Amino acid sequence: MTHRMLLAVATTAAGLLAVAAPAQAQYPGKPVRVVVTTVPGPLDTFARVITDKMSAALKQPFVVENKPGAGGNIGADMVAKSAPDGYTLLFALDTTFTVNPSIYKAMPFDVAKDFAVISVPVTYGQMLAVNASSRRSRWLNWCNSPNRSRSTTPPAATARPAIFHTRTFSPPPAST
Prior knowledge:
By secondary structure, this protein is of the alpha/beta class. Helices cover 36% and strands 10% of the residues.
């Protein structure tokens, strides 16, 4: 196990214990359900690795259950409506809380009120890529250019800066 993974497990376990301490002297006293908002893949793998270590450290099973759909809203809604006893946890992409409120007319839960973040055990970035020898390498030249005059900041980024952390670019001009 890497140092970073060990730190993630320790941080998550400490967060769980801090949240549950007032409610119970010995947490967890029964199996913990962990809802993952994606199909099996990278996030599911992270969740299983971390919960396996948490199970060993806390001497209780952490049972992973995949509930994908609607950009994570289905699984998140299940957790939001679960008993507030600390025995149902959410393992989700941040986009469920940062992007979904901007793209769905109505959210089935209140992002700010229905959840308390106890840990961020995994972070990983996303990227847009193209084959470097592609005819579309003009994208690479344009993206790396210091003068990207065609870039725009979406209006929502100004209105809700906590939601957007990226810039949206219009396509590069066609090569002549």
